[in-house]
Amino acid sequence: MSHVVVIEDEETVREVLRFHLERAGLQVTALESTAGGLDALNGADALVLDWMLPGESGLGFLRRVRADPDLRRLPVLMLTARAAEAERVEGLETGADDYLTKPFSAAELVARVRALLRRSQPDTPQTLANGPLSIDLGSAEARMAAQRLNLTRREFDLLAFLTQHVGRVYSRTELLDRVWGADFLGGERTVDQHVTQLRSHLGETVGRPAFLETVRGRGYRMRPWAEAK
Ligand code: CA
Hints:
- This protein is an alpha/beta fold.
- The chain has 9 helices and 12 strands.
- The protein has 2 domains: 3-120, 3-Layer(aba) Sandwich (Rossmann fold), CATH 3.40.50.2300; 127-228, Arc Repressor Mutant, subunit A.
- A hairpin with a 3-residue loop joins strand 11 and strand 12 (219-222).
- The two termini are 35 Å apart.
- Bound molecules: calcium ion.
């Protein structure tokens, strides 16, 4: 789940922002000033920052954000009541990625934040590999050696998730949560069924799977290829 920090001093605006961003499936931390703002940004995926704040202005805070090596590339959307072009330019030159002029619609705000989150994705690797198994996240294709595997969407998601976390054990509940999503109503047997299907796609020998290991009493894990051979 993406985490968005909102800094806005007007309570009604702040709560409206929180409501709509949360409804869009984002985790929100809302602050009324920039005090503690840098700490709140630790691990955040985007910042929605009001320009006019009591104390330090949004622009001043943005300068500090951009001076922090860990936050240099954090997507920032500035909110401004100022429509003056010179000020918008100043915000963008200071390092805002986008801006919205008040008043704005909630739908537009959510769309802009989503666009920022999408644009910041290319840093994550687009292909995963574990020995002869390779996964292209962009085209949603998995291959064993050169052979393309004919997977359902969910089988692909499960295989990609486990390959992303090679060597780590996940319980069935965790896999349901991470791959199927918290609102999925099916039970843990769904995970077992998908693992069985994946093993068949991967050509795994019954009782001696190379990749998808059953860890008794705990769940499943993708074995590192060095260990699987
Ligand atoms: Ca304000």
